[in-house]
């Protein structure tokens, strides 16, 4: 498997330029807008997962996994801390994706998990982690964060969960013999490919938010 | 009593109206359960209120105060958030009763969010009905929300209406204390300082509203508010100067009856009425002493010395965005006066210039209202600067 040429980055950026403001607007709006967007995108992702599945058990597992993420994102956003929490979660995951892509491409090096996902390198994972931590710190700072160390730590934890989710989906695709999970967003494969990290990070974010002692934002 | 407590959210709990509301909630813990308290910058007071009331959420609009607030509430289990979106989300949590007491245009979006949740909104934010009246009333109607007036004058009218049908109503009278310049000449008013204008004879309030009482813009804004709240035409709303501030409002009915609401000048009385409506809540507010009041005077306002009433009626007749511009221009002019950049009489002059310059405008969505508000502020700033020069 040869790495995709740099040119697909342009298509990725063009897609991201449209998707990112829409996503941010939905997070900003919250309330019913957020629930409708979640239900719509969740439906697409669940459909893509079903297409990749072999048999009813794996399809049901996938749908449950997507549902869990959607419920987590809904519960997180409906609380007054929701705008900050979901923004934190999303930007940590997105920055991790971008950071992994850029550093992995620049540095190369030993593969992270060649049996599951030949494109991923250790350098990409480390770069993604660094980008995630920086994004988490930036969001937290925007909300008057009094404990930067804590915010960085939670950003890192969520980034690791997101990377694990990413590998999980790669493994699933490999197992079912598909290259992309769908063709909805140009340059981005399937929507599932875009949100695989978030699917894992969202329930983790909710758990952290609840364990953090109802005291405020999930990073605080 | 075994009654399910009413859930309450207070938007602007650290302000003057908010503090009075919190007093009443503290005195009646069995009747109310506090869902969210929302403040802006006073994190210490917000935290103290949230602890005392056992609030579920405490939200400060200013992210810079988050650290102080979360530290003050650490270990209490009270959820803390900050920022404008957090304020909107807290307003949307769906409390049975919401006090909308964030002043100024900053209060518009949270008040609308509370109305859209479809429960009861006690309205103390004048701008919601003056600046964004159409938008607000539409949101209330669409969501099936109940609007209760907290302003002492409108609450007095609401109480005096006593559930009578609209057809039985002839006119209403809003009373005005007349402010510190009630008997001053135009020359004295032209030379008035902010300190003199801030010396209100009967009510203790914030600086902006005290100046508005001195110019009678406060009453002008209340005329617009009354027209929206009670669906009245401009000539069905009369203003009377009543220096004793004992009678807060009167309603004339078609049979010749006139009902009035009276009481000591204490905001806790109208707030308590709105909190308990349709029941009543006991308060320890000072009781009206009729013998001490002895004499009640009512005088028609002098619209030459106080042009604010005329300007407000004109804005109400013009409709559309005119009240939005009136309110925005007045805020800028009052600020310029408080900073000694313009004279007292310049306040109304600046407002009139802005209304003339910008002409008739539409403002039928919140975004249009906010854009027009910003434009009118900008324009008023330029007129104020021209007068200061």
Provide a descriptive summary of the structure in words:
The complex is a heterodimer of chains A (220) and B (389). With 220 residues, chain A is mainly alpha-helical. Chain A has helices at 7-29, 31-52, 55-78, 82-107, 122-142, 148-176, 191-211; strands at residues 111-113, 117-121. Chain A has one domain (7-211). Helix content of chain A is 75%, strand content 4%. The longest helix of chain A is centred in the last third of the chain and has 29 residues, at 148-176. Chain A is globular. The termini of chain A are far apart. Chain B has 389 residues and is α/β, with parallel strands linked by helices. Chain B has 3 domains: 6-149, NAD(P)-binding Rossmann-like Domain (Rossmann fold, 3-Layer(aba) Sandwich); 151-264 and 272-306, no CATH class; 319-389, RNA polymerase sigma factor, region 2, helix turn helix motif (Rna Polymerase Sigma Factor, Chain: A). Chain B is 47% helix and 15% strand. In chain B, the strands form 2 sheets. A 7-stranded parallel sheet of chain B has the order 4-3-2-1-5-6-7, with helices on both faces. A 4-stranded mixed sheet of chain B has the order 9-8-10-11, with helices on one face. The longest helix of chain B has 23 residues, at 366-388. Chain B is globular and about 60 Å long. The termini of chain B are far apart. Classes of the chains: A mainly alpha (220), B alpha/beta (389). Chains A and B meet through α4 of A and α3, β4 and α4 of B.
